[in-house]
Amino acid sequence: MKKNKNDQVVSVLKLMRETLDEMGLGYVKATTGHGMDVLKITKFPSEADFRDDIKGPMVDSLEEFNKTGTPFVIYMFPIHFVKEVLNYTMEFAFFDNKSVFKIQDGNVTYTNAVELMIDSLAWAIKKAGYPNMKIMIGQIGWPTDGYPHANVKNAERFHKGLLKFLASKKGTPLKPGPIDTFLHSLSDENMFPRIFGAFQRHWGIYKSDGNPKYKIDLSLQDRDVYPTQAKGIVKMPNRWCNFNGDKSDMNSVNMNYDLACKAADCTGLEVGASCSGISFESKISYAFNAYFQKYKQKIETCDFDGLGEIVATNPSLENCEFPIEILAFQDQVIQNGMVIRI
């Protein structure tokens, strides 16, 4: 977070607060979300503090939040924080940490990253003079593709532990009690910015076709169940665009591959992703199909200078799905009470 942007955030918060008060909406809280990067990188939560370059604006923000009892909203993504920031074993990201790794901070033992992250923030806020400020988790989740350890099995495991933790209402050593939390996110977003990596497009509990990816009990009863399947989803026909295998002009092959991935979502092919280990030919097919599906399976979008061919046999491989796109509402019409494709 850059200082000038933080300064602007504080000004906007003050303006929103004044406007809400003038409208007689003093009970409405004005806030904004923060990443864990507002903190200095430390091993122990008790040593945590806001970064020196933004400490002034952060304290100003806390003052604004404190006026109306507004919680401090934090966005936390343990998979990224553990690997890229802390450089710890990935087991530390899970509540059922199966390793012997732990962090001993004085008389407090941390066996998972989430409690450590919350208390690190709590210490920074406490040092700024607001020990009783509530912390709210505005975003937390686990991606299923596009990153090492990002898969369905780990996502199910992480959420199972997280929801048990939330249901217990025990909180953390420094912040005991229930913690309001928002899961991120309901479905994958194939146009989401990739600031930190391809995995940012794969946070969804649901696939784009409305099918849940894994078991998760949103009722907090720790049941071994899948969430409700989405209704009203209309998929395109079972057909895919494949690379026909012609490698006589590799410049053309590479150019069309780049064209497809520039327009469509090829994050499944990146290092650590579900399709990263497939063959060269299959990667070209994956890219061609992603483009073909994005443009509603129009025949001309599977040409690629004669390198593409439309097939009715699913080319998906083990752990690598070649998706079929769903129809947007504007691409559907209703006739006699039935949804049909335009």
UniProtKB/TrEMBL annotation:
The keyword Signal applies. Pfam families: Glyco_hydro_17, X8. InterPro entries: GH, Glyco_hydro_17, Glyco_hydro_17_plant, X8. Transmembrane segments: none annotated. Gene3D superfamilies: 1.20.58.1040, Glycosidases (3.20.20.80). Keywords: Disulfide bond, Glycosidase, Hydrolase, Signal. One of its GO terms (biological process) is carbohydrate metabolic process. GO terms for molecular function: hydrolase activity, hydrolyzing O-glycosyl compounds. SUPFAM superfamilies: (Trans)glycosidases (SSF51445). This is X8 domain-containing protein.
